[in-house]
Write a sequence for this structure.
């Protein structure tokens, strides 16, 4: 009871503090406006039509996200599930971007239905990938990260191609609570309130029964699947309404149910109600921080960015003592072959040679397609791109093989574990703090970011036996932290916006001959080192006990392999930006073809990653000629689509 007495008082005090961050109106004037007096001065208009609706919107949206996260976490019995980790937020974002480009009138009038459809489809896809038993463990979170990467690549591609239609979405995409009247509050309240009341009244009993297990719930007369579907739709409805009204705000739905349990919520009803109140309090607090920084600086600080900047470290602190080394993914390596046939090696080598030839000789022109050897000028433009794409694909594939074997999780990759995000974050921070171009960042800066992430992984992982859950949690937090900084940069609206967005899509446009040369040398060296560590990698992938029994220095081997992954990610990110899914997909494709030994998987995966990036770079150059798409975007879309199809077929059972 003390929690429910203190929290409303904290909400009231925080609301009063938030209101005083706006241009001040005397307290007597505030009360008069609240009781119906007409505003007359500018400060009174701003208080009544901007400050008050903003506080109301923060409470409504925060409460909706907190309630949605609590329903999802109790439904799946998984403390890492939320609209963000299920892919619902990115699905709603992509759906609204598509509507803004192709049907702006429909987006304006029925945006909430479009957002709900996108959220429902993406969440259904994640649940399909994870499988029935993967919902309650780490697989559903990692599958959600994969879907987030794919949908984010699609949205970025649309924004790059249709910037004239999507410029107004930048601030919205960062999560903006600023209001100019009471329209959105009055729009949101009648749509949220009935669902929230229905959940508070009818959801506690089925959620309590689900804690006993599916069989126990059925034995007590509960129709399992209709109830699960109804609760899932209700949770997605709440998050979709919030996304439609204010844009993308992450971590509220993920953090508040964990905070509610931390503060003593034990029953299903208690967790639902307390998560709702905590969600409003947390979003109001982060919005007050964002508003305070916006008043001090000359730049707008979006509320969603502030929520991610605060939520990421808070979640790590809250859950750091609850990760277990035994929390392993149940998803298995795909494929049934146990060795690579000669015909497969020949087919892959032939495909790479064909792609090299096509990249150099086949391209559209003003008179149609031309097949000719490039002249001196075209050769000087094409070979650095060609070499960069090939080396980036090979390097990321090697990094993916190492990570998947190192933590024995087939859904691990540099992008999901956060190592690529560390390199990217360092380069974006260089732009924000130093004012230089994103293309001026060097490998040392990127390596510093990767090593910082590696230090966090080692610091947290050593205590918990390098549990995949903790590593995935760090990756999720860093990805959200990076996205917050990115959205802050985009919301500034300066000339660097599209340069940063294009670079973040994995572009080979501006790669110089020198950059291509040292990238090739670095990737070749790391590839040789990876092959030389094949024995240690094989023993680590079998199990810690067997590795120690065979005399392997386990901790040192693990650290050296992680450093090798960091070097690869730093090299690739510094030259062409972050590239997703190559390090995730290429090891799986190699395993499908029969590469089960460490040496053969490293070699075949590097060749397949090379082929994927070469194909992506060529398609990005010719598909929309004379416009071009970044190779990283095409690789993410193609690789992500196939990878999701592969996981849906080979999901854990």
């Amino acid at each position: 009871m003390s929690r429910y007495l203190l929290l409303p008082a904290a909400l009231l005090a925080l609301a009063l503090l938030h209101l005083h961050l706006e241009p001040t109106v005397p307290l007597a004037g505030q009360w008069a406006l609240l009781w119906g007096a007409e505003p007359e001065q500018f400060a009174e208009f701003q208080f009544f039509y901007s400050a008050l609706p903003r506080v109301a919107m923060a409470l409504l949206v925060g409460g909706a996200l907190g309630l949605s996260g609590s329903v999802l976490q109790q439904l799946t019995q998984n403390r890492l599930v939320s609209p963000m980790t299920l892919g619902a937020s990115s699905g709603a974002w992509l759906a609204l971007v598509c509507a803004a480009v192709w049907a702006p009138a429909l987006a304006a009038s029925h945006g909430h239905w479009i957002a709900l459809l996108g959220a429902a489809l993406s969440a259904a896809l994640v649940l399909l990938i994870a499988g029935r038993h993967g919902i309650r463990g780490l697989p559903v979170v990692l599958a959600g990260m994969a879907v987030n990467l794919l949908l984010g690549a699609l949205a970025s591609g649309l924004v790059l191609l249709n910037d004239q239609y999507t410029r107004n979405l930048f601030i919205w995409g960062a999560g903006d609570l600023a209001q100019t009247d009471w329209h959105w509050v009055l729009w949101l309240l009648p749509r949220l309130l009935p669902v929230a009341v229905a959940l508070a009244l009818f959801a506690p009993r089925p959620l309590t029964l689900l804690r006993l297990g599916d069989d126990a719930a059925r034995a007590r007369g509960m129709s399992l699947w209709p109830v699960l579907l109804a609760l899932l739709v209700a949770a997605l409805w709440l998050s979709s309404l919030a996304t439609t009204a204010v844009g993308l705000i992450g971590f509220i739905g993920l953090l508040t149910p964990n905070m509610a349990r931390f503060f003593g919520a034990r029953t299903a009803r208690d967790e639902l109600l307390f998560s709702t109140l905590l969600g409003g309090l947390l979003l109001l607090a982060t919005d007050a921080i964002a508003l305070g920084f916006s008043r001090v600086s000359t730049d707008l600080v979006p509320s969603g960015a502030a929520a991610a900047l605060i939520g990421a470290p808070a979640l790590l602190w809250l859950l750091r003592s609850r990760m277990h080394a035994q929390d392993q993914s149940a998803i298995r390596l795909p494929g049934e072959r146990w060795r690579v046939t000669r015909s497969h090696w020949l087919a892959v080598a032939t495909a790479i040679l064909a792609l090299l030839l096509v990249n150099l000789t086949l391209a559209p022109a003003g008179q149609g397609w031309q097949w000719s050897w490039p002249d001196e000028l075209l050769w000087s433009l094409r070979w650095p791109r060609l070499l960069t794409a090939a080396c980036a694909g090979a390097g990321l594939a090697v990094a993916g093989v190492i990570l998947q074997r190192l933590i024995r999780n087939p859904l691990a990759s540099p992008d999901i574990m956060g190592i690529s995000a560390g390199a990217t974050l360092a380069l974006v921070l260089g732009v924000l703090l130093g004012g230089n171009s994103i293309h001026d960042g060097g490998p040392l800066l990127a390596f510093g970011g990767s090593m910082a992430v590696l230090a966090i992984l080692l610091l947290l992982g050593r205590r918990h036996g390098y549990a995949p859950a903790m590593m995935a949690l760090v990756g999720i937090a860093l990805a959200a932290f990076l996205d917050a900084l990115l959205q802050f940069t985009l919301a500034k609206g300066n000339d660097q916006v599209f340069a940063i967005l294009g670079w973040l899509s994995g572009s080979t446009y501006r790669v110089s001959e020198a950059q291509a040369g040292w990238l090739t040398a670095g990737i070749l060296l790391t590839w040789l080192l990876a092959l030389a560590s094949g024995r240690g990698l094989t023993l680590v992938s079998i199990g810690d006990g067997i590795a120690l029994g065979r005399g392997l220095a386990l901790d040192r081997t693990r650290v050296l392999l992680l450093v090798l992954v960091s070097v690869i990610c730093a090299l690739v990110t510094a030259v062409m930006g972050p590239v997703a899914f190559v390090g995730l997909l290429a090891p799986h494709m190699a395993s499908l073809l029969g590469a089960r030994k460490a040496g053969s998987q490293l070699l075949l995966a590097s060749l397949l990653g090379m082929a994927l990036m070469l194909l992506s770079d060529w398609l990005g150059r010719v598909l929309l000629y004379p416009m071009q798409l970044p190779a990283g975007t095409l690789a993410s879309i193609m690789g992500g689509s196939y990878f999701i199809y592969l996981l849906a077929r080979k999901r854990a059972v």
